[in-house]
Design a protein that fits this description.
This protein has 68 residues and is α+β, with helices and mostly antiparallel strands. The chain has one domain: Double Stranded RNA Binding Domain (2-Layer Sandwich). The chain is built from 1 helix and 3 strands. A 3-stranded antiparallel sheet has the order 1-2-3, covered by helices on one side. It is flat and about 35 Å long. The relative contact order is 0.20.
Length: 68
């Protein structure tokens, strides 16, 4: 499966990675690469737990346009 993830660096320099299509699926790393590896593991773990609990694996996400 392929997922979109967001990565941002916080005020302490830690890279935070999040998978918006899986609620609560967040990880971090000291480097951008480490956060990418960690979010892959978090995604796998979240999918396993959601499946065990009979929850939908993902939620729908959409792209919208907003005038700024």
């Amino acid at each position: 499966m392929k997922f979109i993830v967001s990565i941002e660096q916080d005020e302490d320099g830690v890279f935070i990675a999040e998978c918006p299509s899986i609620p609560g699926c967040v990880s971090q790393g000291k480097t951008e690469q480490e956060s990418m590896e960690n979010i892959k593991e978090a995604i796998r773990d979240c999918l396993i737990v959601r499946e065990e609990k009979g929850m939908p694996l993902t939620i729908e996400t959409r792209e919208i346009e907003v005038a700024v």
